[in-house]
Specification:
This protein is mainly alpha-helical. The chain folds into two domains: about 70 residues, no CATH class; about 70 residues, no CATH class. The chain is about 60% helix and about 5% strand. It has five helices and three strands; from the N terminus they run E-H-H-H-H-H-E-E. The protein has a three-stranded antiparallel β-sheet. The chain is elongated and about 90 Å long.
Length: about 170
């Protein structure tokens, strides 16, 4: 129990309130990794609930319930380095110029065919560029919105508290 625990809105007391995120993390360490180390929040909760927890099996069941009930919001923050489609086209166009030079030197008869293919490819990209760029921008925007939603949810989760007296979760 923290010395700065907030007051539970149901029972009006702060002596048996615990941070949900700490309970989750400490329970995960104890339940999944069998780590009995420094877990003050969880240890205080187990002391508060000792009348309800009579055996190791009951304690494991409580830890399992904490892991299920107090888990963080689902989702995964995406950190990607998206490359704008125009950048890719410029890169491959420069590479194509190098290939054109090699073709002009070694197989000059094939140069007109390759030039037609290159110009056709560039025209096809220019005709479909709006759709490609729009799809790229939509994907980037959706990723940013999802990251913002996840960040907000995790921030809210880190502010939640559990009161062992009335078995309720609250946001102070």
């Amino acid at each position: 129990m923290n010395q700065t625990s907030p007051v539970c809105p149901n029972c009006g007391q702060a002596d048996k309130t615990y941070k949900v995120s700490l309970l989750y993390l400490e329970s995960a360490a104890r339940f999944n990794h069998r780590d009995e180390g420094n877990q003050p929040e969880l240890d205080e909760l187990l002391i508060d609930l000792r009348s309800e927890i009579s055996s190791q099996a009951a304690q494991n069941q409580l830890l399992s319930q904490i892991l299920q009930s107090f888990s963080p919001p689902p989702g995964e923050k995406h950190i990607t380095r998206r490359i704008h489609p125009d950048t890719m086209v410029i890169f491959f166009s420069l590479l194509a110029l190098l290939l054109l030079y090699k073709i002009a030197v070694s197989q000059p008869a094939q140069l007109p065919i390759i030039l037609i293919l290159l110009v056709g490819s560039i025209l096809a990209y220019l005709l479909g560029r709006k759709a490609v760029v729009r799809r790229y921008e939509n994907h980037v925007r959706q990723e940013q919105e999802e990251n913002a939603r996840l960040e907000t949810a995790v921030t809210r989760w880190t502010h939640l508290y559990f009161c062992s007296r009335d078995k309720g979760v609250f946001d102070p």
